[in-house]
Amino acid sequence: MSEKDLVLTTYKETAPIILVTIVAEIWVGVFLIGIEDFYELLPGLFIIVPGLMEARGNISGALGQRLGSAIHLGIVSWEDKFNEDVRENVKASVSLGLLMSFSLGVLAFISSILLGFKHMSLLEFILIAVLTSTLAGVSQVGFTVFIATYSSHLGLDPDNVTIPALSVVGDILTIIYLLIVAKFTLSISGWLP
Amino acid sequence: MERYYDAQAIINESLPFLTFIIIFSMVTGNFLEGFAGNIIEKYSIILLILPAFINMSGSLASVFTSRITSSLYVGEIDDDFKPYKVLFLNMISMVLVAFTGFLFLAFIGIAVASIFFEINVTFSNFILIVAFSGIVTTILMMFIGLFAAKMTYSRGLDPDNFTIPTVTTIGDLIGTLLLITLIITYL
Question: Domains of chain B by range and CATH?
Answer without folding.
Answer: 48-186 (1.10.357.20)
